[in-house]
Every structure is written in structure tokens, then in C-alpha cells.
């Protein structure tokens, strides 16, 4: 087990509603650009919510051409594997290639047996299956022969391991809205245990079917009705007028790497994973649990070896759910006590929507971008904060140097995760 070597992020990639690469994503964060718009979530049946932060104007081949420094052989392989694949596979390929390129793994001599793969995603083929129903009912025998592979989450493992020649451990993890953080934690543990030196962690895009969307509406989790005519104002984390999460889409990939491996390859880490926590609060329902959130943050701090007073920025879970926001704000205040008012808080979901399975990865990437570029993105819709004793970022971007930051993700079913990051 590697105990003396730190584990860092050496590459990142993203396809989202506010940017299809790190440069455009970063620019949107700085500008406070929202990806939430009027969209047609279902032509039949009609749904009561018609806003989301979906990936628009998507062309796999065109976006593939825009990725820099891909070897010709790798480009051809990616095109072959992705051109006729489901949307979720295509976006994973693109974000993973971006991260691979930034980590300079195209020129690496890292052994394929020492590279791991963690797919952070669950129920990712729901809409793909839903769209096939009418065709299947009419002509069942015309179902694609690849369907038996493509409806399985492990299709992501197969495609990406083939694309990148990965022969270490590879698997799929799920944790509801905390899935992205769970993926990072499990990738970190693979390296910590010495099983691999490098790990590709991929947050799968949430491609919800109309049934999934209606399910969230029925339990009161999804917002979008109160501000249906002003979609960019609908996601309101920690604001008195929040009503529920707004659905977002993003595929995000990061490369985790041991310090020893990064040094050997002469690659710099963008940020280090200082500590993490992943705990359950023994709850099968959707409601958040303050004690579980408190325990996750405290354990992450303990494992990071840092005092609560060392944290100066938190990228909150901040889902825009009234109960969720209230609970997280209480938990932060309980963990950080008198220091809580000194910590800047924002929620990337205000710009990207809630990207569900990939949300934790979206927010870790956003945290690293902000730490490295010296700014904090705004909470663009925060007009009346639910608490006055916490330091929420305002409606404008500010210059700020976060040195040690925390990123929270909490999921249905009592899943609580927290990650502590340090700028390298």
C-alpha cells in the first residue's frame, strides 16, 4: 500500500452544457454563464417541466476533431468505437480523450497493467432503451446485435479499456447524486493500494428518459415550475425561492496518478486529493441527514490531516432543493463552527444544473479550475440567502485564491461523500 506518495489529478476533460472542453468550461464559470434553457424533455407524453441544462448541438465526429494531439491511430480507433455508439458512450470517449491528452498519456510508457478504469455512472442507458421501445414493438428482430452489450453499464468499461489499452482493474460504481465522488474515491483507493499507478475516472452523462424525469417530479425533487418562463433563474441553491434541482448533463473525466508515477513521467499534478470520506447514514429514502453529512466532512478533514480552519472554500452539493440546502448549510455550520463565516461557498449546479451521476466530478473539476485560476464563480441566483451566518459567493465572480478546498456530494439512500483538495 502506497502511504508516503500523494495522489493527484494530472488530467481533466469535460463535455457539458456550458463548455465542451476545459477552456470553454472555465470561461463559463468565470462569466457566470448558465446552461439552463427551455428544452423539449419529452414530445410524448408532455411533462410539466420543460427546462434543463442539456448538451446541445452535439456532433461526436466534429468534437472528436477538436481534441488536440490525438495520434492518428487513436483518432481512428475512437471514431470506430464511438461513431455509432449511444450518446453516453460518445460523450465518455470525448471527455476521456481530453483528460488523457492533458495528462500527456499519449506519449507515456506507463504499463497498461498499471492503469485502472472507474466508470462513475448508473442507469445511464435509460433513455437509450426508452427510445427503442416503439421500434422494438413493431419489429423486435431488428434490434441491434450490439444492444445486449450497450444496455449494460459495463459497455463503458469495455469501450474505454479498448480505446486506451487499459489492462488494470476496471469497474462501474454508483452512488446516486454522489456517484462522481464515489468514482474518485474508488480510483484513489486503487492507487493507494498499489494496484495501479494511474486511474482514469469517468463520470457518465445522465441521459434521463421521460419516465425518470416524471419520477423525480413525483417525489418533489425536481424544480423548474416556478421559473418556467425564466429558465436561467430556476436553479437557486441556498436561496429562499429554491424549489428543487434542475436536470443537467455532463460527461467528465479525470486522470488520478501517484506522485511516483507523475514524477517518473515528468508530469505536474493540477491538484492533490488530500483526503476523502464515503459513509452511509442508514437511510433508504431521499431525505438528507445532517449527521451523515457532518461525519463525512469531519472524516475527510481527518484523513486529509488538515484543521477545519485550513479550508477557505467549499464547492457545496447545493442542489437547490429546500430541504437539501437547509441540511447542508446546517452541517457546514456545525463542522466549521466559528470559522464557517470565513469560508466562501458556491454551487456549480447553479450554472450546470444537477448532472446527477457525474455531478461530483463536474464540481471537483470546477474546484480545481477555480483554485488554479484564482477566482470563485458566482451563485448567480442567490438573492435571499437561507442563512446570514455563512459566506455565500454573491452574484458576481470574485478574485480569490483557494488553497485547500472541499467538495461535497450527497445522494439518495443515505450516501454522503466529501473530498478535500489542495492546489499543487
From TrEMBL:
Its EC number is 4.1.1.87. SMART domains: PKS_KS. One of its GO terms (molecular function) is lyase activity. GO terms for cellular component: cytosol. GO terms for biological process: fatty acid biosynthetic process. Residues 4-423 form the Ketosynthase family 3 (KS3) domain. It comes from the Bacteria. Keywords: Lyase, Transferase. PROSITE patterns: KS3_2. Signal peptide: none annotated. InterPro entries: Beta-ketoacyl_synthase (IPR000794), Ketoacyl_synth_C (IPR014031), Ketoacyl_synth_N (IPR014030), PKS_Beta-ketoAc_synthase_dom (IPR020841), Thiolase-like (IPR016039). It is an enzyme of class 4 (lyase). Belongs to the thiolase-like superfamily. Beta-ketoacyl-ACP synthases family. NCBIfam families: PRK07103.1 (NF005490). This is Polyketide biosynthesis malonyl-ACP decarboxylase PksF. It comes from Kordia antarctica. The lineage of its organism: Bacteria, Pseudomonadati, Bacteroidota, Flavobacteriia, Flavobacteriales. The gene is pksF.
Amino acid at each position: 500500500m502506497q502511504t508516503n506518495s500523494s495522489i493527484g489529478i494530472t488530467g481533466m476533460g469535460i463535455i457539458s452544457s456550458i463548455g465542451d472542453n476545459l477552456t470553454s468550461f472555465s470561461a463559463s464559470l468565470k462569466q457566470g454563464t448558465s446552461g439552463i434553457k427551455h428544452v423539449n424533455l419529452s414530445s410524448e407524453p408532455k411533462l410539466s417541466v420543460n427546462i434543463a441544462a442539456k448538451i446541445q448541438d452535439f456532433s461526436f465526429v466534429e468534437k472528436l476533431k477538436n481534441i488536440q494531439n490525438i495520434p492518428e491511430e487513436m483518432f481512428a480507433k475512437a471514431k470506430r468505437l464511438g461513431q455509432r455508439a449511444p450518446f453516453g458512450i460518445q460523450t465518455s470517449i470525448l471527455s476521456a480523450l481530453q483528460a488523457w491528452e492533458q495528462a500527456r498519456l499519449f506519449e507515456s510508457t506507463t504499463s497498461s497493467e498499471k492503469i485502472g478504469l472507474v466508470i462513475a455512472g448508473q442507469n445511464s442507458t435509460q433513455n437509450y432503451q426508452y427510445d427503442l421501445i416503439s421500434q422494438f414493438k413493431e419489429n423486435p428482430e431488428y434490434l441491434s446485435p450490439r444492444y445486449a452489450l450497450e444496455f449494460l453499464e459495463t459497455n463503458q468499461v469495455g469501450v474505454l479499456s479498448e480505446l486506451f489499452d487499459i489492462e488494470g482493474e476496471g469497474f462501474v460504481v454508483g452512488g446516486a447524486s454522489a456517484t462522481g465522488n464515489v468514482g474518485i474515491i474508488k480510483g484513489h483507493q486503487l492507487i493507494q493500494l498499489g494496484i495501479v499507478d494511474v486511474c482514469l475516472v469517468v463520470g457518465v452523462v445522465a441521459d434521463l428518459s421521460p419516465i425518470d424525469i416524471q419520477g423525480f417530479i413525483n417525489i418533489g425533487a425536481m424544480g423548474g415550475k416556478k421559473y418556467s418562463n425564466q429558465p436561467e433563474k430556476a436553479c437557486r441553491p441556498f436561496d429562499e425561492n429554491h424549489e428543487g434541482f434542475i436536470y443537467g448533463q455532463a460527461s467528465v473525466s479525470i486522470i488520478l496518478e501517484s506522485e511516483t508515477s507523475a514524477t517518473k513521467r515528468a508530469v505536474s499534478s493540477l491538484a492533490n486529493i488530500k483526503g476523502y470520506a464515503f459513509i452511509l447514514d442508514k437511510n433508504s429514502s431521499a431525505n438528507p441527514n445532517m449527521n451523515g453529512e457532518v461525519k463525512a466532512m469531519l472524516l475527510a478533514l481527518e484523513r486529509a490531516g488538515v484543521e477545519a480552519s485550513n479550508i477557505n472554500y467549499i464547492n457545496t452539493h447545493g442542489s437547490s432543493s429546500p430541504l437539501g440546502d437547509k441540511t447542508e448549510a446546517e452541517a457546514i455550520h456545525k463542522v466549521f463552527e466559528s470559522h464557517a463565516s470565513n469560508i466562501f461557498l458556491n454551487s456549480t449546479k447553479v450554472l450546470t444544473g444537477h448532472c446527477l451521476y457525474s455531478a461530483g466530478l463536474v464540481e471537483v473539476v470546477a474546484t480545481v479550475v477555480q483554485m488554479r485560476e484564482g477566482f470563485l464563480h458566482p451563485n448567480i441566483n442567490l438573492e435571499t440567502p437561507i442563512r446570514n451566518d455563512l459566506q455565500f459567493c454573491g452574484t458576481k465572480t470574485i478574485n480569490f485564491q483557494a488553497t485547500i478546498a472541499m467538495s461535497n456530494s450527497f445522494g439518495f439512500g443515505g450516501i454522503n461523500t466529501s473530498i478535500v483538495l489542495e492546489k499543487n
